[in-house]
Design goal:
Two copies of one chain form a homodimer. The first copy, chain A, contains twelve helices and 15 strands. By secondary structure, chain A is α/β, with parallel strands linked by helices. Chain A has three domains: 70 residues, Arc Repressor Mutant, subunit A, CATH 1.10.10.10; 128 residues, ATPase, nucleotide binding domain (Nucleotidyltransferase, domain 5), CATH 3.30.420.40; 155 residues, Nucleotidyltransferase, domain 5. At the A-B interface, helix 1, strand 10, strand 12 and helix 10 of A face helix 1, strand 10, strand 12 and helix 10 of B.
Amino acid sequence: MITTSDIVLGANAERSRSHNRGMVLGQIRLAGRIGRADIARASGLSIQAVSNITSDLLEDGLIVDRGRGTAGRGHPPVLYALNPDGGYAIGVEIRPDAIFAGILNLCGETIASERWSLESTDRDTITQTLLRLRDHIVTKAGISERKLLGAGVVMPGPFGATGLSDSESDLPGWEDVAPGRWFAEHLGMPVLVENDANAAAMAERISGIAQSLDTFAFLYFGRGLGLGVIANGRLMAGAFGNAGEIGHIPVPCAGRTVPLESVVSRLSVQRALQQQGIDAPSTADLDRLFAAGDPVLMTWLDTAAEPLSAAITILENLFDPETVILGGALPQSILEHLVGRIRLSGRSVSERADRLHPRLMTGASGRLTATLGAAALVINQAFVPKIADLP
Amino acid sequence: MITTSDIVLGANAERSRSHNRGMVLGQIRLAGRIGRADIARASGLSIQAVSNITSDLLEDGLIVDRGRGTAGRGHPPVLYALNPDGGYAIGVEIRPDAIFAGILNLCGETIASERWSLESTDRDTITQTLLRLRDHIVTKAGISERKLLGAGVVMPGPFGATGLSDSESDLPGWEDVAPGRWFAEHLGMPVLVENDANAAAMAERISGIAQSLDTFAFLYFGRGLGLGVIANGRLMAGAFGNAGEIGHIPVPCAGRTVPLESVVSRLSVQRALQQQGIDAPSTADLDRLFAAGDPVLMTWLDTAAEPLSAAITILENLFDPETVILGGALPQSILEHLVGRIRLSGRSVSERADRLHPRLMTGASGRLTATLGAAALVINQAFVPKIADLP
DNA sequence: CTTGAATGCTCAATACAGTTGAGTTAATCG
DNA sequence: CGATTAACTCAACTGTATTGAGCATTCAAG
């Protein structure tokens, strides 16, 4: 991800305002409907300040008046909520063979989605295809281009040449360019670039099961296995933007030590099926096989449970998340089976009586998870305070 | 750690100032000696704003004028540096059998340290002992109490009752109290509470080998094995303050899968030695055995290398840190031997050509690492922007 | 039903902190 | 030696948030 977003450090009047605007929007998102006095209490700002900011937001169409509150005595508050039509974000996922795109509104609802095939992955082809795809999907969604907040782009990681680079999954022709800047220039809007797992994790936070969670880990079944960690509401990116490569950690499996994604991933189950002559290229295929109780698939699930459980113990003890979420390009049925099947270790910091959420949950599934997550990255930007801080 | 520090969200004039002060101090610390124009460029503030802030800091005695710069043409800048005497922090480490304390100055230099035995771990005994110890060490260091910025306290984790709770290492009598608030009230100063590994990691950043690193992982050899992760200059705490319990993750060792700290920790080496009738309670004992090439110790080192290497691969792929640092209550000689002995996996996001630092390094070692780290937590506060942000 | 307390909110004045623009000083370069 | 570059200061300005007075609306107690 090459940490694009300009890291601004000092606070001044302008940046304070933008910071507070993001905060107020975040509070409104979190609460659903909320009055100004409550926002002020939650944010440590004066009522007057919140009042000024909300009237700005109202004028900009980002929030709407949603009636009066009732509880208790005293003057009932005016309640505000996000305006779904207040802004939109495009999400784009670039794969070696296709481009996926989707549009999310400010409330995180999907407005449109598309899949276009790619003949080549060179920069020109991708850029031209993307421009046409953008126009197409914006028209299809019937929204005004002015209301686009930006675009999120998901590309195969890891970024830069690392020990995990792998010509099969990487995009040739993109090694020597910063994709964030490239797309920002060509699309003419702010662009965030992330890997699939991080984007999918953000989707859970914006419109999924993790809307009220600040610290969680998301295990993403893509081609391999990815991890997105959100800590205190922020994506954990790592020094070079490559954090979360969980697929490559060594885990025990049937007495041996193997890389996690060699036994727990979409590719691994498809390989296991193929060895028995079963072809299951799509998520729907897998769903069908699962519903039919296919023995090869069931055996794979049994085998995968142990290393997956080990991986979750590792995640819990290293990150101490509120929960671990399983999602991505496997059918919901299989994800749910895995969640039910896995015996979580008792030797974990996550084994505590005062938990508010289960240790393991299923999140969004299906092929579009990462694409919509890319858009969620942009939507999230609106809700996050802007004064970045580095020591 | 019970995330004490009041999480303020909104920005106003007062908080902006304090934020910018922290930022400017952080820049000065990072650079060593720096002029106002450079600070302005690094922070995105105007020269005038930086000028106002530095003159405040100068007046408060936090920084000092350190002559003029020379390079290039134009008016040479006035260079500022941290004033070591500008402030002090007390670090305290509470163990079941003793209290350690140390004092650090603003530059992270150790001014004094002490070890006092404990007869009991009940709240009263510890609190009373701590108050006397504080007075004693402040007198010994010969500093003014007014210049104390606060205290950092290291206590055995994990915090709260979890699946890892273990009556042998926990402190009885502290389950139902928030230690941060308790100590803040009784010591009459701001208090930060952390576990040993996190504190030690912060020590590396304030006065150790990681002074210019923003994202790194610190493997801490205490009783067991702990992990402190600093990401973007902040400690990664986890949802319940228990992140970094790396000692309990499953790793392969000699064909079996075991909890990491059962084979890689001070306790594990001491147990191995004891089984052969060798008693080595202190760090110095271990150093002596290592220098003598003791065969039991050497065998243990050989055995530990494989699981430790696996753990480092996990850390690298999950956190993508700039480096991994080994430190804590083992002699420097053994840490260095381990760093040299470990064969790092090539299948890691950290295996990249453009690295600025080695993948594995040794940090501070010895019994006081965590104690001084506790003080470093407080010193660090001075250097960090204050506008906290939660979405 | 009246009165008072509690609560949400507005308006106008104020304060704080950073920015801007016009100098001043001090070094290097040609 | 003059032109140029760069750091810095001074004073006026601007943007945001805060403060305090006051109004509106609701509930509850008498």
